[in-house]
């Protein structure tokens, strides 16, 4: 469990993200694993794999409120991408957070079939788009999407999750085309979030009017 995931050389074949995720889960047979243990295992792949792990649960139906937790956890790697850090740093308190391996495995297993289909179209190309200053733009984009996930917006978590997952794959596989694809995906996420906010506002207004009518009928 002490050996980090292999770091691919620039000219070597990059292992698929699904394989990296499964290797990560196989490295921790215990029921609970800390964030620090995961980061130690990831080393130089921390940004891409951590964002992928946090994004995938939002791509499938999950427990209400989980998207807020994952969104909060995305803020740190997003900010550090903006700052141009090479290694991911998290406070000691966050590193001690314990995560249920079973819950994490369920989220990953639910996403793996889709992820494996997507991987057939992902390859290292246009690598200059996966280096600064473009990675700083990706960090800014991810930070915005993290805030969308944090907010309880109807229809607000699926598309941002897909977009962050695409960003993570771009970082892991050095795929510049995915970087470009993440831009329109972000715009769609913004549009859906705005639509969700509008729907929520209309619903709240209608509930308020119904309560007023009910109150007037009773009193």
Would you give an account of this structure?
The protein has 219 residues and is an all-alpha fold. It has one domain. The protein is 66% helix and 3% strand. The protein contains nine helices and two strands. Helix 7 (134-150) packs antiparallel against helix 8 (158-173) and helix 8 runs antiparallel to helix 9.
The low-pLDDT segments are 6-12
Beta-strand portion reads under 5%
Q: How can the largest sheet be summarized? A: 2 strands, antiparallel
Structural class: mainly alpha
Q: How many DSSP-defined strands?
A: 2
Order of helices and strands: HEHHHHEHHHH
> Into which percent range does the helicity of residues fall?
55-70%
Note the gap between the termini: 68 Å
Give the topology, please.
Layout lengths: L16 H10 L5 E3 H8 L3 H10 L10 H17 L9 H4 L2 E3 H19 L14 H17 L7 H16 L2 H43 L1
Antiparallel strand pairs: 1-2
Helix pairs in contact: 1-6, 3-4, 3-8, 4-7, 7-8, 7-9, 8-9
Summed up, what is this model?
The protein has helices spanning 17-26, 35-42, 46-55, 66-82, 92-95, 101-119, 134-150, 158-173, 176-218, and strands at 32-34, 98-100. It is mostly helical and 219 residues long. The protein has one domain.
